[in-house]
Design brief:
One of its GO terms (biological process) is positive regulation of MAPK cascade. It is found in: Cell membrane. Its main location: membrane. The chain is mainly α and about 300 residues long. It has a domain of about 200 residues: Rhodopsin 7-helix transmembrane proteins (Rhopdopsin 7-helix transmembrane proteins), CATH 1.20.1070. The chain has 10 helices and 2 strands, in the order αααααααββααα. Strands 1-2 form a two-stranded antiparallel ribbon. A hairpin with a 5-residue loop joins β1 and β2. It is elongated. The protein starts with a helix and ends with a helix.
């Protein structure tokens, strides 16, 4: 029997077996060099994300000028990104390199829920930050009074509760996908995917991406228009103030309208440098007096 097996094990069979094994390895993961390069890049991204977001949290906590209600949403955003870097990205890196899920169904369910929770919270924090900036620019006095620490904490809690409402249904009700059909009709049982239920996919994508994206686009467009309007109003006010100051200085110096002043200067036979310096210093003094009077 051993002789028959040995006789049947021809070089062609060995080559076919090696080819099938190599093809299967390529389908399941990367080769060694690719795995090393991808691992280094992803580890650098993970480390940078962790360090950067920790520094943001530490800066807001330690620097007194940064401990303001407007920065509570920034801390919430940093925490959500930190959760992505610590809880989601390392397992995603291993899953990507190996090409298969090796941690079991329970860890898969928790990992997918953490992924959806953290990413949704990050997007919603960005959306709330845009709304906060809009009211701070368009209604600075009124919104400055309403932006209390308690109100901003409530906003942060609402963001995380809404993100939990999107991430928990697959974990508690629907379940995630642990099987995947191949092209040849077979099934893989080493995958970890979020629930592919159509209703949940529609609900999750709309609430966690498209609606916040639309809100941010509209809000930032309004912020751009408000900022441009404020700049134009400041330019008009500055030009009006400069013209008013010029007319007042001309009247005080007895020069009359600009045309008469120019003609009187032209008709003078000679010009004394000391007199010019005295006149320019007097004009500067009058300008400073008018400016102080306007600011007061």
């Amino acid at each position: 029997m051993a002789t028959n097996i040995t006789a049947g094990y021809t070089p062609a069979t060995a080559n076919d077996t090696t080819f099938n094994y190599t093809k299967q390895a390529q389908e399941e993961g990367y080769n060694q060099l690719e795995a090393i390069v991808i691992s280094v890049i992803l580890i650098a991204i993970i480390a940078g994300t962790i360090i950067g977001n920790i520094l943001v949290c530490v800066a807001v906590c330690l620097v007194r000028k940064l401990r303001r209600p407007c920065n509570y949403l920034l801390v919430s955003l940093a925490v959500s990104d930190l959760c992505v870097a610590v809880l989601v990205m390392p397992m995603a890196m291993i899953y990507e390199i190996k090409g298969s899920w090796i941690f079991g169904e329970i860890v898969c369910n928790l990992w997918v829920s953490c992924d959806v929770l953290s990413c949704t919270a990050s997007i919603l924090n960005l959306c709330m930050i845009s709304v906060d900036r809009y009211y701070a620019i368009t209604k600075p006095l009124e919104y400055g009074v309403k932006r209390t620490p308690k109100r901003m904490i409530v906003w942060v809690i609402v963001v995380w509760c809404f993100a939990a409402c999107i991430s928990l249904p697959p974990l508690l009700i629907l379940g995630n996908e642990h099987e995947e059909k191949q092209e040849d009709g077979s099934k893989r049982t080493d995958v970890c995917l979020v629930s592919q239920d159509f209703a949940y996919q529609l609900y999750a994508t709309m609430c966690s991406f498209y609606i916040p994206l639309a809100v941010m686009m509209v809000v930032y467009y309004k912020i751009f228009r408000a900022a441009r309007r404020i700049v134009n109003e400041e330019k008009r006010a500055q030009s009006h103030l400069e013209s008013h100051c010029y007319m007042e200085i001309s009247v005080k110096n007895g020069g009359g309208p600009p045309e008469n002043k120019i003609s009187s200067q032209t008709s003078s036979p000679a010009t004394n440098p000391a007199r010019i310096n005295h006149r320019s210093s007097t004009t500067s003094t009058n300008t400073m007096a008018v400016t102080l009077r306007v600011q007061g």
